[in-house]
């Protein structure tokens, strides 16, 4: 089975979010970049599937040269080779179109990625790739097993879950608890240095949206502390001041 | 030009977040045509008019009772054509995201999700970095899809009656390549992403056996229950209750955090709540910095008192 895992290169979940250049650029000063947490789950499940059924894992990122350490980390975790589409991601459609072009050329059986990136939180790329390739897209997937050409999945729905079946090929947007995160070991780190990392030039696609600038939310006011022996006062404030109960 | 709204249902009822999407579309102006897929309870379609919709296209087909992503995207594309709509508005949800993405490609429409305010011309404001920032985005395409975040606009309740038209979309087997074999849903509970009040518990509650206290407070408030990541990791509570950066993001009017210290990843999932109450015995817990109201005391002492006070208020 040929598995493609698409990964994002995103600021660590604890990063302080700030902008520069008149609020038009993300301030990456001092920011640690990681594989998107949801993509990490997708990669971990791909490694488990490869262990069970054999096959190959290709990891893909749409990004400039700065993302290569993130791709190398994915190789250290267990991917066999990597592809970097050499362009800064514009919008979701642009990224999806680049992924779909690579996927068309390589005929992957299963395309996994996170349910959403943790920077832009769009949750759209998997669906767009599915539609561009004319194959099913399922998200958010919390369990995925392959039996021959059949894929059995559990998808999270609001207030519960649903079980689905589909034939390969398909695209899945993954989330926990689909697999245990894998931490690269020393052997993986050493072998990642020599695994192939192919750089391909982007396809000519226009994005459909443009981000003009960014804003930070207004600063939070001071917390009002309430004595534990005066809970009636909390209820009064929620009713009369906040007007939420 | 009409605006098409995808009115999502849960348990044969139109979701409140979808009625907010209808209200949002009505505030944009023009005809608002809502699409309802699958069977619904009596009286549900009337809510579309009350929320500002002018017309309902109802595909009353049992095959559409469950949210099949591909089929829904095909039906919505057909509905957009039928309604002559160049803009589609929907509520952000796990199904909404998955459907809107495919619809965007079908329609050649730019898609912006997590939108928090009405558009200004072709520009919309969206939440990014899990609520830690906003981006102002220009839609360049002629056709547009806007997925709004909960609580982005007030729910309109004084609209008129919407004309209901039966809609029979052309469905093919290709739309049902992925088959739903079963569903498990918590019945009769307030859905977490839809809830106007959320009561969440963390490790400070010491174990799943103590959750009755949280549920009792939630019942008194008509609230949904949530939890922190360690709590769902330890399987004290189901995963769909995990609130945070890698779980459910909520934006209720009131978020009550009990025994949760306030890790940055948890805060990211709740920071667009209108009001936050924190109950934690550690006065140094970082969550107090993000709270509007705080009680630095033992949850086992405070929560029953709070529940009693809410019950007294309700009576």
Automatic annotation (TrEMBL), chain A:
Q: Which InterPro entries match?
A: ETF_a/b_N, ETF_b, ETF_beta_N, Rossmann-like_a/b/a_fold
Superkingdom classification of source? Bacteria
Q: Where is the Electron transfer flavoprotein alpha/beta-subunit N-terminal domain?
A: 23-209
Listed A to Z, the keywords are: Electron transport, Transport
- Tell me which CDD domains the record gives: ETF_beta
Q: Does the keyword Transport apply?
A: yes
Q: Does the keyword Ligase apply?
A: no
Q: Which family does it belong to?
A: Belongs to the ETF beta-subunit/FixA family.
Could you tell me which PANTHER family the record lists for this protein?
ELECTRON TRANSFER FLAVOPROTEIN BETA-SUBUNIT (PTHR21294), ELECTRON TRANSFER FLAVOPROTEIN SUBUNIT BETA (PTHR21294:SF8)
Q: What's the protein name?
A: Electron transfer flavoprotein subunit beta
The scientific name of the source species is Imperialibacter roseus
TrEMBL record, chain B:
Q: Which SUPFAM superfamilies match?
A: Adenine nucleotide alpha hydrolases-like, DHS-like NAD/FAD-binding domain
Question: Member of which family?
Answer: Belongs to the ETF alpha-subunit/FixB family.
Keyword match Cytoplasm: no
Record bears the keyword Cell membrane? no
The Electron transfer flavoprotein alpha/beta-subunit N-terminal domain covers 3-180
SMART domains reported for this sequence:
ETF (SM00893)
According to UniProt, the name of this protein is Electron transfer flavoprotein subunit alpha/FixB family protein
- Give the InterPro entries listed for this entry: DHS-like_NAD/FAD-binding_dom, ETF_a/b_N, ETF_a/FixB, ETF_asu_C, Rossmann-like_a/b/a_fold
Q: Name one Pfam family in it.
A: ETF_alpha
The entry's keywords: Electron transport, Transport
């Amino acid at each position: 089975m040929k598995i493609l895992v698409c990964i994002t290169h995103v600021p660590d979940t604890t990063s302080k979010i700030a902008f520069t250049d008149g609020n038009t650029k993300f301030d990456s000063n001092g920011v640690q970049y990681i594989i998107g947490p949801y993509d990490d789950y997708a990669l971990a499940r791909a490694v488990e599937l490869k262990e069970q059924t054999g096959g190959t894992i290709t990891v893909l990122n749409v990004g400039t040269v700065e993302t290569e350490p993130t791709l190398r980390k994915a190789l250290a975790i267990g991917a066999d080779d990597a592809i970097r589409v050499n362009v800064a991601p514009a919008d979701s459609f642009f990224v999806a179109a680049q992924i779909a072009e690579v996927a068309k050329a390589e005929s992957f059986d299963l395309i996994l990625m996170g349910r959403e990136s943790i920077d832009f939180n769009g949750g759209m790329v998997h669906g767009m790739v599915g539609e561009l390739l004319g194959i099913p897209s399922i998200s958010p997937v919390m369990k995925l097993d392959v039996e021959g050409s059949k894929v059995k999945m559990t998808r999270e729905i609001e207030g519960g879950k649903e079980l689905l079946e589909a034939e390969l090929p398909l695209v899945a947007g993954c989330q926990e608890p689909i697999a245990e995160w894998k931490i690269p070991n020393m052997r993986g780190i050493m072998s990642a240095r020599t695994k192939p990392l192919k750089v391909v030039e982007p396809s000519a696609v226009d994005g459909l949206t443009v981000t003009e600038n960014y804003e930070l939310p207004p600063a939070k006011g001071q917390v009002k502390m309430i004595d534990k022996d005066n809970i009636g006062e909390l209820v009064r404030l929620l009713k009369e001041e906040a007007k939420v109960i | 030009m009409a605006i098409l709204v995808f009115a999502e249902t849960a348990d044969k009822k139109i979701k409140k977040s979808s009625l907010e999407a209808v209200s949002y579309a009505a505030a944009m102006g023009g005809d608002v045509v809502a699409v309802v897929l699958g069977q619904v309870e009596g009286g549900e379609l009337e809510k579309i008019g009350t929320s500002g919709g002018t017309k309902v296209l109802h595909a009353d087909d049992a095959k559409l009772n469950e949210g099949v992503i591909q089929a829904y995207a095909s039906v919505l594309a057909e509905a957009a054509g039928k309604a002559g709509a160049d803009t589609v508005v929907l509520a952000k949800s796990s199904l909404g995201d998955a459907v809107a993405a495919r619809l965007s490609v079908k329609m050649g429409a730019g898609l912006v999700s997590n939108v928090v305010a009405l558009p200004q011309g072709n520009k919309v404001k969206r939440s990014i970095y899990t609520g830690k920032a906003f981006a102002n985005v220009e839609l360049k395409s002629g056709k547009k899809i806007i997925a709004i975040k909960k609580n982005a606009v007030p729910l309109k309740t004084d609209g008129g009656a919407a004309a209901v038209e039966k809609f029979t979309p052309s469905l093919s087997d290709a739309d049902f390549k992925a088959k739903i074999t079963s569903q498990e849903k918590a019945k009769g509970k307030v859905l977490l992403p839809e809830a106007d009040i959320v009561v969440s518990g963390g490790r400070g509650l010491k174990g799943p056996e103590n959750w009755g206290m949280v549920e009792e407070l939630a019942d008194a408030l008509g609230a949904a229950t949530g939890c922190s990541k360690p709590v769902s990791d330890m399987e004290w509570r189901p995963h769909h209750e995990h609130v945070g950066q890698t779980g459910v993001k909520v934006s209720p009017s009131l978020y009550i955090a009990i025994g949760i210290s306030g890790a940055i990843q948890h805060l990211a999932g709740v920071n667009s709540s209108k009001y936050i109450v924190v109950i934690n015995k550690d006065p140094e817990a970082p969550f107090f910095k993000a709270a509007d109201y705080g009680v630095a005391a033992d949850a086992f002492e405070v929560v029953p008192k709070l529940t009693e006070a809410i019950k007294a208020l309700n009576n």
